[in-house]
């Protein structure tokens, strides 16, 4: 207390010191004193009021506690009285057991009296209900059935309440109403029959379908009421719950499955297109059924049944099951394609689930795949394996057919431009095109795989094609009279090579995306090389035919007969031109190469005749005459090959100029200039060897041994620089087995 007083005094001193900090504040001391006195009085008044309020609350609490104590005493006294009365009434309750049993019997009898009319009329109601069911009056039949079941269930419930263990009476009641379950089953059969034909019924007689749905809804309500009572009493009537709604969906599901499975009308043995027909029927049926369900059936069912969503799910599941069954069969390649095209494309297209009449209820993006990715992958692997075998067989058969055509006595067909051709390229690429179009219907990835497969098999096929053309040539060489149209069919084979090239490029451009073109195009150089080799071999075969006919005339060149006026070159030109009239049926790229090769070989044979020392000129006159004849014949050959090469846009004079250059060496009259002329020839044609020069000088017939030796040795000391564009020709000419020493003699 003293401590509190000290704190109060200290606080007061501090407040007073705060008020009297300046001298002029001393005048207000009385004013300060009065203000503090008022504050003190106010605080004391509030303190007194608070204490008074606390005292009043304590007083009230004590009063209430006193009242509660009195109440507890009264309750204890009343409980004692109740306990005493209960003990006294136990014997009285036991004596009322007979009354209780009488009340229960009275309740049962009251229920029996209430249902007495129905009980006596059960046989009649059963007959009426049966008649109504047979007449198709399902709603009325169900109403009577409900009355029968209600009477039976009411009696059985009262019996259950009285004595749940008395099975004899329960059996008696159940037996008396035994026909009720049969009627229920018969009515259910009628309902299920209507539901099985619901898609037809909803168009012809929608009220019948509505009646069926109303009956099922009634039974669902009764089931719910029975189950609620079971929770309270434990009693469930026989045959409950019926679960007709659940059975209804099961019936619809079975109906959908049967409808899908029943669309297969043919087998592979009876119709090769059985699967296409089967899938098309499924598509049409499913689309028609779902449109009917969306537009008509939803109006016959309560919204909470979600009938369209459930039917859509049933159809999807039935289709998935059916597709799995089809996928597990041993399908052929075209059947795999039909199945995958239908599953991956047709199913979600506007022709089926994506149809505008099914929107917006059907969203194809939410539909699960009909076949799992593993099954699709397995089918694709099977398809690629089968397709590989088929392509190999097709190509082999096409080649065998083409080989038979090579032996025909009639010329091959010509295209619109007049070029000979066989049907092989068209057959091969038509087959490729068909398979690629089919693959494109399934997916871009499969299309690319099929294209790669086609190109790979094309590569192998071209190797076989090359071998067969070589055998064809060898067969002809054994007997040049057969085959009769050998030249024409070789021309067709050459043209086929160009057609193959163009078709391959066209195929890749049409079916190959640019982002994968680089990887696939690696096979192109290989095929181009094989095709060029086949064409080159064919062109070589044709030229061999030409030079076999020219052999006799080429042997007359550079002989005494030739010098005296042989028309060998005239015959050569006529023969070459005649052959090239046939060769006009060769397509331009290969004809261009063939013309150049023909010119090269004619000039080569001409020069070979020069180097074979068939003639040695005896005088300057003979040398002049021979040289001038060589120049004229070079011009004649030049004119021929210019004519043949017209339209190719290339200079065709190069090879013929070689004959003119050699003629200049022969024509030279001053032996002292011979070295200069020969050195000029060597500088233009650096592949000329010593034996060529020796043979050329020997042909002149006026060169001494020492001069020949000097010219050759001098030329050997000064090697010439070859033109990078120069195409060697002399290196292919072999001088007969006479060494340089013999030529110099």
TrEMBL record:
Pfam family, any one: Sec6
Gene Ontology CC annotations of this record: exocyst; Golgi apparatus; growth cone; membrane; midbody; perinuclear region of cytoplasm
Superkingdom assignment: Eukaryota
Molecular functions per Gene Ontology: SNARE binding
Keywords carried by this UniProt record: Acetylation, Cell projection, Cytoplasm, Exocytosis, Golgi apparatus, Protein transport, Transport
Gene Ontology annotations of biological process type: exocyst localization; exocytosis; protein transport
Signal sequence residues: none
Localization: Cell projection, Growth cone; Cytoplasm, Perinuclear region; Golgi apparatus; Midbody
Predominant place of localization: other
Transmembrane segments: none
Quaternary data: The exocyst complex is composed of EXOC1, EXOC2, EXOC3, EXOC4, EXOC5, EXOC6, EXOC7 and EXOC8. Interacts with EXOC3L1. Interacts with BIRC6/bruce. Interacts with MYRIP. Interacts with SLC6A9.
Primary role: Component of the exocyst complex involved in the docking of exocytic vesicles with fusion sites on the plasma membrane.
Family under the similarity heading: Belongs to the SEC6 family.
Protein name in the entry: Exocyst complex component 3
Species of origin: Panthera leo (Lion)
Gene: EXOC3
């Amino acid at each position: 207390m003293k401590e509190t007083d000290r704190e109060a005094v200290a606080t007061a001193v501090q407040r007073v010191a705060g008020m009297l900090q300046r001298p002029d504040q001393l005048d207000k001391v009385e004013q300060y004193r009065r203000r503090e006195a008022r504050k003190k009085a106010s605080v004391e008044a509030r303190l007194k009021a608070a204490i008074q309020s606390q005292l009043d609350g304590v007083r009230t609490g004590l009063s209430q506690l006193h009242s509660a104590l009195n109440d507890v005493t009264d309750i204890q006294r009343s409980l004692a009285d109740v306990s005493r009365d209960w003990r006294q009434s136990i014997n009285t309750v036991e004596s009322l057991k007979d009354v209780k049993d009488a009340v229960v019997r009275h309740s049962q009898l009251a229920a029996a009296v209430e249902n007495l009319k129905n009980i006596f009329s059960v046989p009649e109601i059963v007959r009426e209900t049966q008649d109504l069911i047979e007449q198709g009056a399902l709603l009325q039949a169900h109403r009577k059935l409900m009355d029968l079941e209600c009477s039976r269930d009411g009696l059985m419930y009262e019996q259950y309440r009285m004595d749940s263990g008395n099975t004899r009476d329960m059996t008696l009641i159940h037996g008396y109403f035994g026909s009720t379950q049969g009627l229920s089953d018969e009515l259910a059969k009628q309902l299920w029959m209507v539901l099985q034909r619901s898609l037809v019924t909803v168009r012809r007689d929608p009220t019948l379908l509505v009646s069926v749905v109303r009956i099922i809804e009634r039974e669902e309500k009764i089931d719910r009421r029975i189950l609620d009572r079971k929770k309270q009493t434990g009693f469930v009537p026989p045959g409950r719950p019926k679960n007709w709604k659940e059975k209804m969906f099961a019936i619809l599901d079975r109906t959908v499955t049967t409808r899908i499975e029943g669309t297969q009308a043919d087998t592979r043995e009876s119709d090769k297109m059985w699967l296409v027909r089967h899938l098309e029927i499924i598509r049409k049926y499913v689309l028609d059924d779902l449109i009917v369900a969306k537009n008509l059936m939803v109006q016959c069912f309560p919204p909470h049944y979600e009938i369209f969503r459930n039917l859509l799910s049933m159809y999807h599941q039935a289709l998935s099951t059916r597709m799995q069954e089809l996928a597990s069969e041993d399908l052929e390649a075209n059947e795999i394609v039909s199945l995958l095209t239908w599953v991956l494309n047709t199913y979600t297209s506007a022709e089926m689930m994506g149809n505008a009449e099914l929107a917006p209820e059907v969203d194809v993006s939410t539909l699960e795949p009909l076949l799992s990715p593993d099954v699709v992958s397995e089918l694709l692997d099977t398809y690629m394996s089968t397709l590989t075998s088929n392509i190999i067989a097709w190509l082999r058969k096409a080649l065998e057919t083409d080989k038979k055509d090579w032996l025909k006595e009639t010329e091959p067909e010509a295209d619109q431009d007049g070029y000979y051709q066989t049907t092989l390229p068209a057959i091969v690429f038509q087959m490729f095109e068909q398979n690629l179009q089919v693959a494109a219907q399934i997916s871009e990835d499969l299309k690319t795989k099929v294209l790669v497969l086609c190109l790979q098999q094309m590569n192998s096929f071209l190797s076989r094609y090359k071998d067969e053309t070589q055998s064809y040539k060898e067969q002809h060489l054994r007997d040049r009279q057969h085959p009769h149209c050998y030249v024409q069919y070789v021309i067709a084979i050459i043209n086929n090579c160009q057609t193959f090239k163009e078709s391959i490029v066209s195929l890749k451009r049409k079916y190959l995306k640019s982002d994968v073109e680089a990887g696939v195009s690696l096979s192109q150089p290989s095929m181009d090389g094989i095709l060029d080799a086949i064409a080159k071999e064919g062109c070589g075969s044709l030229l061999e035919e030409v030079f076999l006919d020219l052999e006799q005339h080429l042997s007359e060149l550079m002989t005494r007969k030739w010098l005296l006026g042989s028309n060998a070159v005239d015959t050569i030109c006529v023969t070459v031109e005649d052959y090239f009239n046939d060769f006009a049926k060769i397509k331009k790229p290969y004809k261009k190469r063939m013309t150049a090769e023909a010119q090269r070989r004619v000039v080569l044979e001409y020069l070979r005749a020069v180097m074979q020392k068939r003639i040695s000129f005896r005088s300057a006159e003979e040398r002049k005459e021979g040289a001038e004849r060589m120049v004229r014949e070079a011009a004649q050959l030049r004119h021929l090959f210019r004519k043949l090469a017209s339209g190719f846009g290339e200079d065709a004079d190069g090879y013929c100029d070689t004959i003119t250059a050699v003629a200049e060496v022969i024509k030279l009259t001053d032996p002292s200039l011979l070295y200069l002329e020969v050195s000029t020839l060597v500088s233009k044609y650096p592949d000329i060897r010593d034996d060529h020069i020796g043979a050329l000088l020997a042909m002149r017939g006026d060169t001494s041994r020492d001069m020949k030796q000097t010219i050759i040795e001098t030329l050997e000391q000064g090697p010439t620089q070859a033109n990078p564009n120069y195409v060697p020709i002399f290196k292919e000419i072999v001088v007969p087995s006479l060494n340089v020493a013999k030529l110099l003699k």
